[in-house]
Amino acid sequence: MTDGEYRWVKQYLIQQVFDLENRNIVLAGVNVDIDVQKRTEEALRIAKESAESSDRLKSAFLTNMSHEIRTPLNAIVGFSNLLINADNKDDFDSFK
């Protein structure tokens, strides 16, 4: 690297010849630049974590909103039932 930047490289190495007499080993190898693949994997990991975080926030929001809506509706339904089931006018007037 002339610019000093690190890159991901995958290396394949195959032993071609092993000569014990002459103590020679012949190797054939290939280096493959996988930097783009690794950067893409990192970007996908970050996007996945962001999506999971957004999903958790959405779930918390819906839970809170459900509670905030349900609480006053329970009061309205409860008072409606009291008005409907009031036996006489005095009971009905006391709920106003």
Overall average pLDDT: 86
How large a portion of the residues is in β-strands, by DSSP E?
Answer: 15-25%
Provide the domain count: 1
The assigned structural class equals alpha+beta
Instruction: Enumerate how many helices there are, as a single number.
Output: 2
State the helical fraction.
55-70%
| H and E string | EEHH
Number of beta strands: 2
The unreliable regions are none
| Rg computed from alpha carbons, rounded to a whole number of angstroms | 36 Å
Shape category: rod-shaped
Distance between the termini: 83 Å
- Sheet bearing the most strands, described? 2 strands, antiparallel
What's the arrangement of strands in the largest beta sheet? 1-2
Protein model, in words:
Its EC number is 2.7.13.3. One of its GO terms (molecular function) is kinase activity. This is histidine kinase. InterPro entries: HisK_dim/P_dom, HisK_dim/P_sf, PAS-assoc_C, Sensor_HK_Regulatory. It is a single chain. With 96 residues, this protein is α+β, with helices and mostly antiparallel strands. The chain has one domain. It has two helices and two strands; from the N terminus they run ββαα. It has a two-stranded antiparallel sheet. The termini are far apart.
